[in-house]
Structure formats: structure tokens, C-alpha cells
Give the backbone structure.
Amino acid sequence: MLFPTVEFAIFFPVVLVLSWALMSRPRAWKPFIVAVSYLFYASANWKFCLLITAVVVGNQAGAILIQRTDDENRRKWILRITVGFDLLVLGTFKYYAFFVTDIDRVLGAASLSLPLPLLTIALPIGISFFTFQAISYVVDVKRGLIAPAPVLDLAIYLSFFPHLVAGPIVRAREFLPQLETPRDPRDIPGGAAMWLIAIGLIKKVAIADYLAREVVDPVFAVPEAYSGVDVMFATYAYAAQIYCDFSGYTDMAIGLALLMGFVFPNNFDRPYRAHSFREFWRRWHITLSRFLRDFLYIPFGGSRGGKLKTVRNLMATMLLGGLWHGAAWTFVLWGGIHGAAQAVEHVFRGKIDIPRWLGWLLTFHIVCAAWVLFRSPDLGVAADVFSQMTAGGAATLITAPALVLVLIVIGLQLIPPKPMDAIQLRVQQWSPAALGATLFLVILLVGATIPDQGVPPFIYFQF
Amino acid sequence: MSDDAPRTLVDLSKARRLDVPQLLKAIALTCLLLFITAGPGIREAGEQMDPGLDRTLVLAVGEPAGALGDVIPLHEVADEATAWLSTDDDLGEGGGFTAAAQDTQAQGGGVPPVTPEAFDPAALGEQAKPRPLKKLLVTGDSLAMPLDAELARRLADRGVEVVRDPHIGTGISKDILVDWGKLSAKQVKDESPDAVVMFIGANEGFALKNAEKRPVECCGAEWAALYATRARTMMNTYRRAGAARVYWLTVMTPSDADRAKISRTVNAGIFAAAAAYRAQIRVLDMVPIFTPDFRYRAAMDIKGKETIVRESDGIHLNAAGAELAADHVMRAIERDFAK
């Protein structure tokens, strides 16, 4: 059930009304919200609900055992086993085919047979997000930052439908305290929430899907059929598409949660205005970035231990971050490029002072080049895209609407945010009737741009 | 604060607070306006969904909303006002197959004549002079992906224009949004292809109306005959009175038993439909290649190496499977066209 669908447009208002009706009675509200979140997830495949239940039970058992154990060594082992369980779930469903295929290739080269069966395992939607949140829960319990939550609270934290399938990755200590007391029914930032939902819809349906359909998908399917100018334009268009697709989803998720009384952390902050890769990762998928920092980079040693070790830690973190996105070498290489770029920045920081405009130019274009790997189904297609960038021929895909959309998406991140902030603040002050009518108009206009084939899934649903 | 300083998505400290009744008023207004301006659209969306809870939910709202829309046609005003934003042509249900059905009825009880089109010249030992392939249309539903891209890649350096036009979520028996009778005619009118590769069948099994307008459920002989009539209509369109060749791929057996039954019936319909036009229609049977004896398998031996060929949904081909299917399509094309 995608957010911009008829099903969700019927599902959500019903849930919203019942949620506020039950809010003052947590003993009724909590089972209700778990049930509707499971219903939301079951619309993709009911079997996935069994998996998320197993993750809830496994992590709750780990958290309680950690709390009840005084011996630090045993606590560490319980944590390792629990995190190992989460990684096993993630590895089995997400990476099995990837590793088995590659093991098979290596063994085949040595004339050996494959010890594991070749299977296609359906990837449960959102598995990367809820397993990471589960890890954050049990680690925060081990670190003493939070106490084990009641099992129903943990089930809500992991399955809460606004963030279930593609984040943002909300930390346990950000979300669980919000469940301790009922949300205030007189304190709903309705204007802000409806603004976010409207902006998210426009970003996803009117911009990201249009650019995908008209420019990006044709080029990445058959790069050889397009001129260098078209291929370059498709690369910039993909940068705009993936930003609008993912941040559009996040805007809607944050807006829906706000309507239900919950606050999620921000996930994007104008990433294409970054002047360095370090800054880019403070602006792009912020909740993943801080997860990687807190649960990989710092445990690896962070920047302690000299430049060489820092470079190693950066590379390891970003390679794993790349692999988190998908079971393919294109994602590993994408992470490698981001790791290498940050490593270079780290090594030369304070030694070479480049102008800010040059920093932006380099960062933006390397990010765009790395997106080619992210978008390509395999390394062969990525190589074709890069090699085709120098090909001659006429531009056939650079239409006025596509060009304007790419320029708006990237340009709006470069200009000062004050005008947009002023509009946003003004809209938030509107009366409920004006807000309701405006949201209707946005849905009507955005809905008219949806093609017969419907709304394609969000890019990050596959992760 | 400088422009580069981290900023929050929305400044909640300055946001106006609503209480629950105010919030619900705003949401109720949005829903009410959608209900009265998009009713028939909601109903259609429900009707084209697969059976299940989602469909029941959407139809529970869509049917009364659609009925209201039938009485007060505000949706037509809304559609006209927003038509400039639409990127689609009008390819919805509208009798694209009606003419063919009437033709079939007009045959009455007589025996339809066998025409020369029913014979592949090669089967009669004739040797036709191969022509060059200039334009290839690859179409169908989601099954046609990534086969379309694979064929386009292979033909990119041969000077062949490959038009890729898959329509995801559509079906020959599912014509609410895309009527393939209309769409095939439009594709031929717009593109005039020398050859057409058709791969469709992932979304079939919907009830088809017979000559008495009675819905016939899948998957008996009557449904197969109605499906075959529609497929034959499309084949006739695509073959352009003999000027084009059509490569129609059958559906390899899916993992789900219900879908497997549908695909078997669909394939039987395709073979029956093509019999009238063997001169131009080549049915490329994917079943013995991917699922011998109608048994689903995710992986198979390719060049001595066990390889996964299906997506995890148990329906579609993955990239390796599409490459294998493309091998067969390319061989068939090379038999009919000069290199």
C-alpha cells in the first residue's frame, strides 16, 4: 500500500479518526496501532508480518536479558547474539542470492560445485529499516540509554506504518518516550503536517515519476540508443529524481506521523548544496548517516588512531553503507566512491584550501557520477552509461518540462531558503477549511499526472 | 543563522496548533471533495484490483462514490479541468475488441474459410527473400521488461529502431484502464513497425463478457475462446495485413498455483489465436524453456551453469532469464529478416 494510492487515501483517514478516538486509552490504542500497522504491511504480503513479529520477539528477549544480567561480558555476548540474529534475518532475506551467486561463480571457476541451493527469496519490504531500528533498540538498552520497553511499545516502534517501509530510521530513544504518554489532542501541528504531505506528493508523483518515465528509465535501459548529451542530462535528472522520490516519501511519512501526534527526525537538508562529501552526508539520508556513524564508524575506531586508520574506518563504513542499499556490486562501488571521497577530504583537510565554489562543483558532480552506479542494474550498464557520455548525436530527451523540473529541484537547494520558509509558515497559519481544500486541490492536480499504469513504488522500498 | 546552517524540515515551534476536531474537519473536507469529484475513478481503481481486502476496501468507498458521480458528474468537470496535466491517451475500456467480437459472431454457424495466411511459407518449403528490419516494437505488460531493454541493446548497433512500450499492470482480459484492442491499433498507427514482440499475461484471469454481455469467469474453454478472439484481433492488427511479423511469447509457468492455471489457459488461447495467421505470427513458447512440464523453477542450467532466471515474485524473468528469452526472439527475428 503506497502512500499516493486510493487504498491509502481510504485507509489513513479511518485510522486517524480511530487513533485519536482511542488515544486517551493506551491499553486500547497500542494494540490498535499495532494491528493497523500489521494490516498495512500485510497488504504487501501477510507472511512478512511473521518476520517482523520474530524480530520484535527476538530483540525484546535480548533487551530483557541484557537488563537482567550484571556481568558485562555476558551482556556483550547477549548483545552480539541479538544483533547477530538481526543481521542473520537481513542477510538471509536480502543477501542470500547475492552471495550464493558469487560463491557459485568463484567455485565454478575452480571447477567445484555449489554447496548452497540457488533460491529466489522474496525481499520483505522495509527489512533494512526495521532491522536497523531493532539494532538501535537493543544497543541503546545495552548502553544504558533506555530501559527495555513493553513488548507492545517495541512492536509499535518497529512496525509503525508511517516509517515502516522506508524510514526515516528513527532511533529507539527518540520514539519510545513518545509512547509513554498519550499525544496531546490540542497540540497537533496540522498545517505543517499537511504542507509536508502536499509537498511530498508533488515531489514524488509530479516530479520524480515524471523524470523517471520521460528521461531516466529510457536511458538506463538502453544507453547506447541515446546521445552523450541525453545521457548526461539523464544523470542530472536521476539526481533530481532520487532526491524527490526519497525526500518526498520522507516528507509524507513525517507529515502523516505529525497528524497522529508523533515527531520523526529530519532526513534531508538540501543535500545538493553540500561543498564536501562530509557535508553531503550531513544533508542526505541523515538518519542513515548517523546510524552508520554511531553503529559502524565509531565502533570501528572513528577518527581515533591516526589518518590511516581513519581512512580504513571511513572506507569500511561506506562500503557497508553501500551494501546496505542493495545486494549488488553497483551499490558496493557506490559506497566505495563516497568512502574514498571522504577519505581524500580527510587526508587533505587543512593542507589544501580549495574555493567553496570548486568544492561544491566537485562534490555535486562526483555525487551525480556515483548515482550512475546506484541506478544501473549492473556494472555493465553503468560502464555503458559512462562510455556513452562522450557519444555524439542530437538531444532528444531535453524537453522544456524536464529541464525546468531538474533546474527547480537542484536550483531551489542552492538559493537561500527564506522565501520557501516564509511561504511554508504562511500556509501553516491557514484555517482548517483552507488547509483541507488546498490538500484536495494538490491531490487532484497531482493525481491527474498519474499515468494509466499507476504510481511506481518508491526507490527506497527495494532497500 | 547562515544559509548553510542545518535547518529543520518544518519549524514546529512556529507551526499553528490544531485540536482534534479542527484537524478532522480539515481531513474530512479533503475526503468529501475527493469523494464527490473522483468517485468513478475510485470505483474503477477498485474494479481493476486483484481480489482481496484492498479491493473490498476501495470498492466499499468507490461504489457509493461512483454512484454519486454518475448522478452528479462533477468528476467530468474535474477531469476536463486537469486534462492538460495528463500524459496518457484515452485507452480505457471503450470497445476496442467489440468489432472483432461482432465479426466472430457474424460467422454464424458456418465453417470459417481457411486463408493462405494460416500457412507459414517456410512450412510449405517456400523461400521468401528476407527484408531488412528497420523498426521493432516491443510491448506487453510487465513481462516485457527487461526483455525490451535487452532486445534494444542487442539491436542498437544494427541500425534498428526499437520502440519499447510495455504497459505495467495491464492485461488483455483487464481492460478498464488500457484496452489492448485500442492500444494495439494506436501503436501500429503511430509506429508502423516491421516486427512486434509481444509478451503479456501476468495480469490475466479477469472475467470476459461473451456475446450476450454475460461475464465469463476464467479458466474454462469459453473464457479461453474469448481470450483467443481478443488475442487474434491484436495479432491481426500487429501483422499489418501481412507487412509485419509478430513474435508472441507464451507465459512461463508462475510459482503460484492459481496463476499457473491462468497462464496455461492464456497460452492455449495464444496458440489457438495464432493458427489463423501462421504466415506472420510466430508463437515463441517459453514454457519448455523455463518451466518444462509446467513445473515452476527459479533456477536452471544455462551454458552448463545453474543460474537464477526468475524474479522472487515467481512470475517475472530476471535479467538472466530475459537474456535467454531474447536469444530465442533474436533467432526468430533473424530467420525472418536480413541482418
Notes: Residues 193 and 255 of chain A are 4 Å apart (CA to CA).
